TrEMBL record:
<keyword id="KW-0328">Glycosyltransferase</keyword>
<keyword id="KW-0812">Transmembrane</keyword>
<comment type="pathway">
    <text>Purine metabolism.</text>
</comment>
<dbReference type="InterPro" id="IPR050120">
    <property type="entry name" value="Adenine_PRTase"/>
</dbReference>
<feature type="domain" description="Phosphoribosyltransferase">
    <location>
        <begin position="8"/>
        <end position="119"/>
    </location>
</feature>
<keyword id="KW-0472">Membrane</keyword>
<dbReference type="InterPro" id="IPR000836">
    <property type="entry name" value="PRTase_dom"/>
</dbReference>
<feature type="transmembrane region" description="Helical">
    <location>
        <begin position="20"/>
        <end position="37"/>
    </location>
</feature>
<dbReference type="GO" id="GO:0003999">
    <property type="term" value="F:adenine phosphoribosyltransferase activity"/>
</dbReference>
<keyword id="KW-0963">Cytoplasm</keyword>
<protein>
    <recommendedName>
        <fullName>Phosphoribosyltransferase domain-containing protein</fullName>
    </recommendedName>
</protein>
<dbReference type="GO" id="GO:0005737">
    <property type="term" value="C:cytoplasm"/>
</dbReference>
<dbReference type="Pfam" id="PF00156">
    <property type="entry name" value="Pribosyltran"/>
</dbReference>
<dbReference type="InterPro" id="IPR029057">
    <property type="entry name" value="PRTase-like"/>
</dbReference>
<dbReference type="GO" id="GO:0006166">
    <property type="term" value="P:purine ribonucleoside salvage"/>
</dbReference>
<comment type="subunit">
    <text>Homodimer.</text>
</comment>
<keyword id="KW-1133">Transmembrane helix</keyword>
Length: 136
C-alpha cells in the first residue's frame, strides 16, 4: 500500500470546521479538488445521494455522524484527509471508511497537531503532522 505523499492526491477532504478551512487551503496549494466532510447534518432533501458514517467515541466521548455527497468522491480518486488536530483518530478512521465506501483510494491523513495517544494509529491511517502535542 502506498504511503502518505508517495502518491499525489486527486481530492482533499476536510472535516468541518477547521479541517474544511485547512483542507481547502491544502487542495488549492496542490491544485486538486476539495470536499467538505459535514458533521451531524440533518436529513437533506437529497439524502439518498449522501453517504454517512458514525465515529467511535471522540475525546469528549461523543459519537459524531460525518458525511458528504456520494458523487463528490469517485472510484479511482486518490484521497488525502486534512484536519487541524488528531486527538483519538476517530474522525480520520470514519472519513477513511467513507472514502472506501466510494471506491476511492485513501492515501493518508495530514494534520497540524498530532495528539494521538496510540502510535499504531499514525501507522494505520497513515497520519503525518506538523507538530506533536508533547512538544507544545
Amino acid at each position: 500500500m502506498a504511503g502518505l505523499y508517495d502518491v499525489r492526491p486527486t481530492v482533499v477532504v476536510g472535516p468541518v470546521s477547521r479541517g474544511a478551512l485547512v483542507g481547502a487551503l491544502a487542495a488549492a496549494a496542490l491544485g486538486v479538488g476539495f470536499v467538505e466532510v459535514r458533521k451531524n447534518d440533518g436529513q437533506a432533501t437529497d439524502s439518498d445521494r449522501w453517504i454517512r458514517r458514525t465515529t467511535g467515541p471522540d475525546y469528549q466521548d461523543r459519537h459524531v455522524v460525518f458525511g458528504f455527497r456520494r458523487d463528490l468522491v469517485q472510484s479511482g480518486d486518490r484521497v488525502l484527509m486534512v484536519d487541524d488536530w488528531a486527538a483519538t483518530g476517530e474522525t480520520a478512521r470514519v472519513v477513511r471508511a467513507l472514502v472506501d465506501d466510494c471506491g476511492a483510494q485513501w492515501i493518508g491523513a495530514a494534520c497540524i497537531v498530532d495528539a494521538l495517544g496510540d502510535a499504531r494509529f499514525r501507522h494505520d491511517l497513515p497520519l503525518r503532522a506538523l507538530l506533536d502535542v508533547r512538544n507544545l
